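Is this the right way to post structure tokens for a design question? Let me know if I should format differently. Anyway, here goes:
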């Protein structure tokens, strides 16, 4: 038997077993058809290297075996006797990191295609692991619609909206897989039962509030990280890679051609380079849940860091909030440096121009809400919305739709609903004005 054949077979056997219950050992023995003594210490070394983290990729296990001195000694001594008992049974099985995660079992690419209602060719097309969509010049062959937003600061945000069929696949993955995984307690964005109010709640009435922002939150999360999420959920490597491909995207270079002259060339070049790699698309229904999962380790580290400093920590998407009393006020400036360092270690960066240390005597605000004494809508925002609604009553709604929004009524309903959620009394006052608006069909 060839050395590479044995390495491949043992790698599959090691990936099949669970590091906590001895299945690794029994699987390897079953593969080899004999209870070789050298397998037990090999399985123990495998558990020590990979048992605590995400299930490794097949190529990582192959590299481990090739570099393992004990395995090489066994090969040198017993190569003539070593055989693979039943190579047809070497297939990976589900191996979830938590038994409580009630995700659907999908153990092969054929199973995944059936679960999504696709044939194998369609599955490969939507996952696009070869990056063909990045190379297509025609809109019809792309899976996403693109919209480039240029902020007042000159920074760029790209909205990547999946087309209907891909969006249906992503919604299925979101509903039956990603929503089965609980979010970190500190996370309040895109989590059922939590909201902006629960995000700011722990920081209301605190002496000092620290607000920080993660730079390029969604596009920083790359394709490998997304695939690792699905491998952590227990899916075999081939299945996890395809699921990750369906939920990620590499933006074609041509999207940036018509961005306009007012954006610096360097900013366009940086955006093109960032979005050209597979990443979480802002606009896909799966992206918020995947971002929360990818950020889980950071949430654990930041929660522990805040606790050691006597502070509270919450996160809403890319907004990080910390707050505390007199002791935290003394160390807030140094603390923000520690947070930035932790983020950098995990592959993220802080947008420093948005960092604010808000001490007593200034307006402490998070996610558009003032939190000095109680969570409330900023007075300026309330007054602007009230004036807009009043002008809609006096002059007609269409005259106030200066940005030519196609669904202006729904836009106003959304802004009104936000006020009603935060401050029901102010919301009722605005609702009374809204009800007087005459809408023309």
């Amino acid at each position: 038997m060839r050395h590479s054949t044995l390495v491949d077979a043992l790698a599959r056997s090691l990936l099949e077993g669970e590091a906590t219950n001895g299945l690794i050992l029994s699987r390897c023995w079953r593969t080899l058809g004999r209870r070789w003594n050298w397998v037990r210490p090999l399985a123990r070394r495998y558990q020590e290297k990979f048992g605590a983290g995400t299930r490794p990729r097949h190529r990582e296990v192959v590299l481990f075996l090739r570099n393992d001195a004990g395995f090489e000694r066994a090969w040198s001594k017993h190569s003539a006797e070593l055989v693979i008992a039943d190579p047809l049974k070497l297939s990976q099985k589900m191996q979830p990191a938590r038994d409580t995660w009630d995700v659907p079992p999908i153990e092969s690419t054929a199973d995944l295609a059936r679960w999504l209602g696709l044939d194998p060719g369609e599955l490969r097309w939507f996952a696009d692991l070869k990056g063909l969509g990045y190379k297509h010049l025609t809109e019809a062959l792309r899976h996403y619609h693109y919209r480039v937003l240029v902020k007042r600061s000159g920074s760029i945000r790209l909205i990547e909206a999946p087309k209907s069929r891909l969006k249906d696949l992503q919604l299925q993955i979101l509903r039956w897989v990603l929503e089965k995984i609980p979010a970190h307690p500190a996370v309040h964005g895109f989590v059922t039962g939590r909201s902006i109010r629960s995000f700011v709640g722990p920081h209301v009435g605190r002496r000092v509030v620290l607000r920080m922002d993660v730079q390029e939150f969604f596009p920083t999360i790359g394709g490998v990280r997304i695939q690792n999420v699905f491998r952590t959920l227990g899916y075999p490597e081939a299945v996890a890679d395809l699921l990750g491909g369906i939920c990620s995207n590499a933006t074609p270079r041509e999207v940036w051609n018509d961005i306009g002259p007012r954006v610096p060339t360097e900013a366009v070049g940086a955006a093109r380079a960032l979005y050209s790699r597979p990443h979480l698309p802002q606009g896909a229904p799966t992206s918020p849940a995947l971002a929360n999962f990818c950020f889980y380790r950071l949430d654990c580290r930041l929660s522990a860091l805040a606790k050691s400093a006597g502070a509270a920590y919450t996160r809403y998407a890319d907004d990080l909030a910390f707050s505390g009393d007199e002791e935290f006020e003394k160390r807030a400036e140094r603390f923000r440096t520690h947070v930035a360092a932790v983020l950098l270690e995990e592959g993220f960066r802080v947008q420093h121009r948005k960092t604010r240390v808000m001490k007593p005597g200034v307006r402490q605000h998070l996610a558009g809400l003032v939190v000095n004494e109680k969570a409330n809508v900023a007075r300026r925002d309330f007054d602007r919305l009230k004036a807009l609604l009043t002008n809609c009553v006096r002059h007609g709604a269409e005259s106030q739709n200066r940005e030519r929004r196609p669904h202006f009524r729904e836009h106003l309903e959304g802004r009104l609903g936000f006020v009603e959620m935060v401050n029901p009394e102010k919301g009722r006052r605005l609702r009374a004005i809204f009800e007087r608006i005459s809408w023309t069909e």
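Format looks fine. Someone answered above. Worth noting: The chain has a mean pLDDT of 88. Residues 188 and 196 are 7 Å apart (CA to CA).
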